[in-house]
Design a protein that fits this description.
Blueprint: H1 2-25, H2 31-61, H3 68-79, H4 89-96, H5 117-123, H6 131-154, H7 162-174, H8 177-184, H9 189-202, H10 207-220, H11 224-230, H12 237-258, H13 262-269, H14 286-289, H15 291-294, H16 303-306, H17 310-329, H18 334-351, H19 364-372, H20 381-394, H21 401-420, H22 435-449
Length: 451
């Protein structure tokens, strides 16, 4: 199994590096090398698509205990007029999906729905089917989310043209191992990924749409609240207003459908009451990495208490402060705005208390932004391409991999904003480019036009 993951990561890194290099300067390679690289990317892409279809089909015929059985049970509970926030939730799961009775007994107490009430409403339509049909419908929706994400990110990242470029973006997405993991267990993370992609696409010209997209994305993954919290420092008040209106409307809708007491139940039986120690395994955030230092094993304390431990609170505060300062100091321009959002995204993945392996897939828009603006960043474009590809390999490292990817991306984007930030006003035409940027733009033009 571990060998397969390593192979997936190495193959993803190779295909990503080749695809990005081909798009960056492929015209200089000659006809045959370019045709060969296209063929390798196409074959690699078909392999990743085949793997995605295989893991989805396998989960339909041989259901895994995580994560879709939880979502399906929530939908069935709501349709039956029953509560979704209850302490003994796993016994209810077994009634609705008896095929998944393979979770060890010692973790039954943490098997429950931990998303906020508005998120529960998103599950309801899938509860009208039998479990296999429901999971199939879920995968169809996730596939549409991934295609829509590719379309949105194609507007941001400069790879290919038309449907060819969109397909190449989709290949880059599927080549990232956490995406395959999210599909394998029936996760809902791709709704959040689509919200991020739309936000990156529209933040400059249509900030209200970006805010609404982030608000909807938060219903799928609450860690996007970290991105939302920084939006007030981006100078885009319409983004913040639209985000607040979206989330408030979703909250009111859940109160109407589920009853006013649903939020009380969420506070009583949701994530806050699960022991903090349960967030130590399989957690790819800063909190998960520091669990051993906080000695949480065997201690019955809540997550809200553990987050106040100085071992976590101090480094989290430092990262938060640095993120806010960098978002405030950089002058406004399309490139700077994208990099600020990318920094906020990486910050959220680092600091949010619980980040599953599949959620590391949300770092992809930040990587795409670095590649998209490579011509105006103060390091070589080839270094950006290498960094992009290395992340695909790093993410398969056991335990540390996902966190290292999020943290290193935060450092990379922070460095770009720190050293290039004041000069990014040149992108919007407010001042002539600095010498290093003038040289980089000239090199980029030569790379595109030389045969």
């Amino acid at each position: 199994m571990e060998a397969g993951k390593a192979l997936y990561g190495l193959a993803g890194a190779f295909v990503a590096a080749l695809l990005l290099a081909k798009n960056h300067c492929g015209e200089r390679w000659g006809r045959r090398p370019l045709a060969l690289s296209d063929a390798v990317v196409l074959v690699g892409g078909m392999a990743f698509i085949a793997v995605a279809i295989l893991v989805c089909a396998r989960n339909v015929w041989q259901p895994l205990p995580w994560d879709y059985p939880i979502f399906y049970t929530v939908a069935r509970q709501i349709l039956g007029g029953r509560e979704v926030y209850i302490p003994d939730f796993y016994s209810v799961v077994l009634k609705d999906v008896p095929a998944v009775a393979s979770i060890p007994e010692d973790v039954h107490h943490i098997a429950r729905f931990v998303y906020p009430p508005p998120s529960a409403l998103l599950m309801v339509p899938f509860g009208v089917f039998s479990y296999p049909a429901s999971l199939t419908a879920h995968y169809i929706v996730q596939a549409l989310f991934l295609i829509a994400t590719s379309v949105s990110l194609h507007r941001v990242v400069s790879v290919g043209k038309g449907w060819r470029g969109i397909t190449e973006v989709l290949i880059l997405i599927l080549a990232f191992r956490p995406v395959e993991n999210g599909l394998a267990i029936g996760q809902v993370v791709f709704g959040a990924l689509l919200g991020l992609a739309v936000a990156f696409q529209t933040i400059e010209a249509h900030p209200a749409i970006a805010g609404a997209a982030l608000g909807i994305g938060c219903l799928y993954k609450q860690l996007l609240l970290g991105v939302a919290s920084v939006s007030v420092y981006l100078g885009k008040m319409r983004t913040l207003i639209a985000l607040v209106l979206t989330t408030v409307s979703a909250g009111l809708a859940s109160m109407v459908v589920l009853g006013a007491g649903v939020f009380r139940d969420y506070v009583t039986y949701g994530q806050s009451v699960i022991p903090a120690a349960s967030s130590c395994g399989g957690n790819y955030s800063l909190f998960g990495m520091l669990c051993d230092n906080m000695e949480l094993t065997g201690r019955n304390i809540k997550m809200t208490e553990a987050l106040q431990f100085p071992e976590f609170a101090v480094p989290a505060a430092i990262v938060s402060l640095a993120t806010l300062i960098l978002c405030l100091r950089t002058l406004p321009s399309p490139a700077a705005m994208h990099l600020k959002l990318a920094l906020a995204l990486a910050f959220s993945l680092v600091v949010f208390p619980w980040v599953g392996y599949y959620s590391v897939a949300l770092i992809l828009p930040a990587l795409f932004v670095l590649y998209s603006h490579r011509a105006i960043l103060p390091i070589s474009s080839w270094m950006i391409i290498a960094f992009f590809a290395i992340q695909y390999a790093l993410v398969v490292i056991p335990v540390l991999g996902g966190f290292v990817v999020s943290l290193s991306t935060w450092f990379m984007v922070a460095a770009m904003l720190l050293f290039a930030g004041p000069d990014m006003r040149s992108v919007s035409g407010k001042s002539p480019p600095p010498p290093w940027l003038d040289r980089r733009l000239t090199e980029s033009r030569n790379c595109r036009h030389e045969a």
